[in-house]
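Lecture notes, structural biology module. Today: joint structure prediction for complexes of two components.
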Amino acid sequence: ANGRKKHQRRKLKANCRRHSLYVDFSDVGWNDWIVAPPGYQAYYCHGECPFPLADHLNSTNHAIVQTLVNSVNPLAVPKACCVPTDLSPISMLYLNENDQVVLKNYQDMVVEGCGCR
Amino acid sequence: GRADLIPDAGRRNLAKQAAAYSPDKIDKNDDMIRAFESSLLNMFGLNERPRPRKNLVIPPYMLELYHSQTKDPENPSVNFNFAGKSTSTANTVRSFHHEEESEAGQPVWEGDEINRRLWFNTSAVPSVELIKAAELRLFREQIDVDHVQYGDSTDHHLYRVNVYEVMRPNSRTNTDTITRLLDTKLVDVRNSSWESFDVRSAVTKWKNSPERNYGLEVEVVSPKRGALSNHHVRLRRSADMDDHAWQHRRPLLLTYTDDGKGSSNSNRVASRQKR
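The predicted structure, tokenised, for the full assembly:
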């Protein structure tokens, strides 16, 4: 039973899901021209898309078929990929190259959901 | 001269990655990094890495707009949703201060009326962006009108502020200047406040024909000439005002534009909000 639990835990951990990724603008040296925010939680998707594809893995019909073919011939076709399926925008206040203050909304900056595609 | 939007450590790692993918094209790695940097700049709508001057003052109103836009992180929107503003599908706000060099030689006060020209260099608005709204914001300091005698007048605290587009200037005499009224407001001088004027039609014209940008003219009309100073509308820096205070009170032009990158996502955002 302990072995099965460990196995399940490892399997769940490895499945496709959203992970934390805080982008700190000072880390990339952009804090001199980006006024706000100082950084933002962007997230990223990572993990396996194992057979069988569970509902929470947010897979497409194509991903299910690709997983099936992969199970038959792993060398011919890779598994489905764990990718962002839903993204949201953020607002940024920054100084442009003319020293003008600009407020802009950028779409698709934050991962809201991941899935097997 | 290098854009260096990517830090040196990142540049080295990217070069290694590129080499792993195409070891036979090591000499082209720099090109690949430059292409990546170019896509980053394009994403931000920049031509080069900004190198801002030190001690630049951020207009408090821009910070206010930022906080207003980010107050509900659970429901982020690609387009701006500012209360009381019709910005349509705009997703970019740019702020402009007027060129103070162009003030030289202008008539300052004409009797007791303010008639002042403000010129804004709006050429930085990219041609691909559509102007959805534009406003001129003027700061007005409160004045004590209770001690001023106006006879039987009951509305002596109301001043009219007119904003015109200069259609044809005459810098020498100011007599042949042709102007077009863009917006007008009756303001109560008993309270300090910012006043907003709709100048979209003029800014749209300047974007399409920059050579026809002759600026805006602001006129303040008192209810009774000579009764009260009109200097409460902050159109120019006073001699005793320090730079910091001036930066917080000087006229500000705002453009609300749509760069065309937000509309395709609106359905997805609406769907998420519904869910």
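Point to remember: Confidence is low (pLDDT under 50) at residues 107-112 of chain B.
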